[in-house]
Amino acid sequence: MGGFTEADLRVLAGPRSFERGEDYLDAVTALEVGDGWITATVQGTDAYEVELSLDEPDGLTGECDCPYGMEGNFCKHLVALGLTALARSESLQGEYARARSRVQDLDAWLAALSRDELLALVREQIAEDRQVRLRLELRAASARGDLAGVRTRIRELLDIGPFARYGYVEYADAHAYGEQASQAVSAVAALIASGRPADAISLSQDAMRMLSEVQDSIDDSDGGLSEVGAALAAVHLDACRAACPDPEETARWLVGHVLGDFDDLTDIDPLDYEDILGEEGMTTVRELALEAWRGNRTGWAEKYLMERLAKASGDVDAVIAVHAADLARDGSTHLVIARELDAAGRPGDALRWAERGIAEVSDTTPVIGLVDYLCDRYTRSDRFLDAVAVRRAHFTAHRSLAAYQQLRTAAHAADCWQAEREQALVLLRADAAQRERDRHGGPVLIDALLDDKDVDAAWQAATTTGADDRQWLGVADQVRAIRPADALRVYQRLAEPLEKQIGNAVYERLTSLLLSMRDCHRRLGAPDDFAAYLAALRAGQKRKRNLMRLLDEHGL
Q: Which residue from 114, 162, 173, 551 has the least number of CB within 10 angstroms?
């Protein structure tokens, strides 16, 4: 097998997977060469089966049953196989010639068999291999025009029974099930090719329904089942184009499918059928969608279909009506509407919807995207005080460092930060006094003062309100230049527990603290004290070779 280069592997895999594949060359075993293909086992987290193929129309392709490869990616294991094959190209040429010879010998042997001998051989394979039996039964039923037989075979192909353990298809078996289920797609496509597209429509609809009924019983982490569903949807569309079915009947099926429980896997879009349905069918689609939406204005599928149809027709007001019928309490829907109106060139209406969103969610915290949108609109219109008012309300309801920073930015633009800061700090000091902590651990007051570079106030707050270690480190870093003795005590306290821990991340933190401590000692005019401290630490930590190496690299 020739015809590909290292550059081809690099392009297919991308730089990261290619570089990682170079580390797996020693993990390639059981390499086998065939006519246009190479297979091997590559040992990674598990032993993965890997195959490279070189086809005339598609060029170099590969398959690997590792999780990344199962997603359709050209993974590092494929790179390893390809590089191994290139490195052994001379020796593989002989194996390749022998493989071609074996294929030719097999063809010649089969050609020499009598009809009865061939039948006996096929029957033997049918008895031993369920997959072969199912494929041949499907072809036989299709060839004799037995629609009921084809439907039965498809039902067997989509049956999870042979793959399920305790009623569920585990991840390890899902790929094999998907491979079998994909044969149903081929069966439907064969019906179209044989001039029976109407039957193909019926069977593809049945197959989609059957597949949806078992999807919750399959671990589809790799998306293989979704690929089968999408392929069934594509072959259904092809069948409809070939058969030209009744527009109204097709429209009713499409809407029922999209609004039912069967569309999760197929993602069918009625607009893809517009050329098949014509005006008559599309009118039926719109009428049925409107009727369904009026009956359930909060239904996700109903809203999606109505919005899709409205956007396709360019009816912005209809899109807005769909969203307005089910407004979220956090203002996120108001934001969606505002952006739709912006895209339609109606900024005034967009602004009014954003303002309405802020007003209507006064009993809860509005989504930050809506706050950002409205403040941006106000700022661009030089309505700086209005932007400050929105940021102030958001900060009051959600006192975080991010909200404080956003308020500060808006207030600076309006030239009123001093007054706003005083009010904000009053709220944060009250929170700190009540020992209210944000999700990072310490009072937001300390983070805000550090962010303002108000060093003395940050130190005072840290000593009186209980800063966490992260905040103490930030305070020490800021006061080190003017209060090195105070900063040194903080660094020493933070370093002490790290001396009892292991791990490169721990060593990096400890080294950083030691560098800061050295700077404090220099500022205090006591470098000898640091030298003694460091010597004692190195003596006690000498077994930690990675730490010693890190200290050496930093001159400690």
A: 114
What is the dihedral sign for C-alpha 240, 246, 249, 252? positive
d(Cα 188, Cα 236) in Å, to the nearest integer? 8
| Per-residue model confidence as pLDDT tens digits over 272-285 | 999 999 999 999 99
Residue 31: φ, ψ to 5°: -75, 135
In 3D, which of 234, 214, 100, 231 has the Cα closest to residue 160? 214
Q: Residue 388 — very low, low, confident or very high, per pLDDT cuts 50/70/90?
A: very high
Residue 526: φ, ψ to 5°: -130, 55
* Tokens found for residue 363: 């009993």
Tell me the C-alpha distance between 219 and 67, whole Å: 13
Q: What is the pLDDT of residues 390-423, one digit of tens each?
A: 999 999 988 899 999 999 999 999 999 999 999 9
pLDDT digits (tens, 9 = 90+) for 463-479: 888 788 999 999 999 99
Vertex 336, ends 330 and 340: CA angle to 5°?
Answer: 160
Sorting pLDDT into bands at 50, 70 and 90, what band is 440? very low
DSSP string of 83-95? HHHHHTHHHHHHH
CA–CA dist 124, 271 (Å, integer): 48
H-helix segments, 347-502: 347-360, 368-380, 384-397, 401-414, 417-433, 444-451, 455-465, 469-479, 484-498
Question: In what helix (H) or strand (E) does residue 37 lie, and over which residues does it extend?
Answer: strand 37-43
- Determine the angle formed by the axes of helices 384-397 and 417-433, rounding to 10 degrees: 0
Tokens of 352: 């009014």
Q: Left if phi > 0, otherwise alpha if psi is -120 to 50, otherwise beta: which for 166?
A: left
Q: Which of 485, 454, 496, 489 is nearest to 472 (CA)?
A: 489
C-beta neighbour count of 280 within 10 angstroms: 11
> In the block, which residue shows the tokens 């989609």?
208
For residue 497, pLDDT over 60 is answered with: yes
Q: At a CB cut-off of 8 Å and minimum separation 6, what does 160 contact? A: 169, 177, 214, 217, 218
The candidate with the shortest Cα–Cα distance to 445, out of 389, 400, 397, 388, is 400
Reference 285, options 252, 311, 241; nearest CA is 252
Both tokens assigned to 321: 């009506």
Tell me the CB-side half-sphere exposure of residue 537, using CA atoms within 13 A.
23
Instruction: Determine the Cα–Cα distance for residues 125 and 55; give it in Å rounded to an integer.
Output: 27
β partners of residue 38: 33, 52
Whether pTM > 0.70 for this model: the answer is: no
Q: What are the phi and psi torsion angles at 417 (to 5°)?
A: -65, -35
CB atoms within 10 A of CB 57: 4
Do the beta carbons of residue 286 and residue 309 sit within 8 Å?
A: yes
Which tokens belong to 230? Answer: 């999408």
